[in-house]
Write a structure and sequence with these properties.
G-Glutamylcylcotransferase, gamma-glutamylcyclotransferase, 12 helices, Hypothetical upf0131 protein ytfp, EC 4.3.2.9, lyase, 2 domains, transmembrane helix, single chain, five-stranded antiparallel sheet, 374 residues, 37% helix, globular, alpha+beta, two-stranded antiparallel sheet
Length: 374
């Protein structure tokens, strides 16, 4: 039997409300450089205090390395309410930027993370040297000079709040890494392959990939996709990182790399419908987990074991339904696939540079309904 007009109307209203909610979370932002005061550079004395473990334990502040959305003032100092005392841009040769933390299919497929790096073996491939990168990547592996980020000096209370807002210890481990300040605070200068400045120690949040067949650690474990390099981050999330890199005046060379990352883009009506049903089903549970995390985090920002288990169970179930039903039925919710034009020909997947032209061509019905993802 067909749907009644009343049911059809209610369904349309529900869809419109959910679509507007998703649109709101992805609305583009303009840089608000004047909204937040410029911070002083972290002093040499405070950086030197980070080197001996005994001295670090006696300090009243933490040095925290940010590399993802926390680069953005609107997120770090605005939404999360962190009040850093100072900051300094750094290069971290022992780490590299990755996007392998699973998020929410069709909306936020993955989030930023880091992985251990071997500086001697991390060199451009032959295709990159020739200027003809492989077409199946989204430019995430084009950077070969270690992690670039910002070290903030924050209070112990603010550091606990950072831990709480990053999952309360459910995914990340707190590690200390060597951070090299840039010799000259000039974003036009090229980033050195091997930094020569004296390093200092800073805390950062690290979720190592689990080797195939191994179980994640009891503390700092996380769910993991079969191919950790497959998913693409959303345009909304990448914009937070690129805006933050610009606000912090990270090297232009690194900003170019970030701006060339290709976002996940819905390219079919089936994916659009899959997004609607998937978010309708799982968003209430995800919101519940984050609400409980804010309520039960301790003074160090860590959530109780039962809540970490609940969170992991929900996200595992979320991705199992995606793999078992949504992806075969509605299409890929992690990586952009070519759209078919009116002649049935595949179009080139969009990049951040050609996405406006891609949308104008009529390739993405979803993005026309949700232009804030651009």
């Amino acid at each position: 039997m067909g749907e009644s007009p009343e049911n059809t109307c209610r369904l349309a209203k529900a869809y419109t409300s959910l679509r507007d909610a998703v649109r709101q979370t992805k609305r583009p932002r303009s840089l608000a450089l004047s909204t937040y005061p410029t911070l002083p550079e972290t002093s040499l004395e405070r950086r030197e205090q980070s080197l001996p473990a005994a001295a670090e334990s006696k300090t009243q502040t933490f040095l925290y390395l940010a590399y993802g959305s926390n680069l953005c003032n609107e997120t770090f100092r605005g939404k999360r309410g962190i009040k850093p005392l100072s900051q300094i841009n750094v290069q971290v040769p022992e780490l590299r930027l990755t996007f392998d933390l699973p998020g929410i299919a069709y909306s936020e497929p993955c989030f930023a993370n880091t992985a251990r790096r071997d500086p001697e073996n991390d060199v451009p491939s032959s295709t990159e040297k020739e200027g003809t990168p492989a077409s199946n990547d989204y430019h995430k592996d084009r950077w070969h000079k270690g992690l670039i980020g910002v070290v903030y000096e924050v209070t112990a209370t603010d550091y606990a709040h950072i831990i709480a807002t990053e999952g309360g210890g459910a995914s990340y481990q707190d590690i200390l890494v060597d951070c090299h300040p840039f010799e000259i605070s000039d974003p036009t200068r090229s980033v050195p392959v091997h930094p020569a400045t004296k390093p200092f120690k800073a805390h950062t949040l690290f979720a190592p990939a689990v080797p195939p067949g191994s179980q994640p650690p009891k503390e700092g474990g996380r769910i993991q996709r079969p191919d950790t390099s497959y998913a693409q981050a959303s345009a909304r999330y990448l914009k937070l990182i690129t805006d933050g890199a610009a606000e912090c005046r990270l090297p232009y060379e690194y900003q170019d790399y970030l701006n060339n990352l290709r976002p996940y883009t819905i390219t079919s009506n089936k994916q659009q419908m899959g997004q609607f049903i998937f978010l309708t089903l799982w968003l209430p549970f995800i919101v519940l987990v984050f609400s409980l995390g804010a309520q039960f985090a301790d003074e160090h920002g860590r959530t109780p074991p039962w809540l970490r288990i609940l969170s992991e169970s929900i996200f595992r179930a979320c991705w199992r339904t995606y793999d078992g039903f949504f992806k075969p039925t509605f299409g890929d919710g992690e990586r952009t696939v070519p759209a078919e034009d009116e002649d049935g020909q595949h179009q080139q997947p969009p990049t951040q540079d050609n996405l406006p032209r891609y949308l104008e061509s009529g390739a993405s019905t979803n993005e026309k309904m949700n232009p804030s993802a651009v």
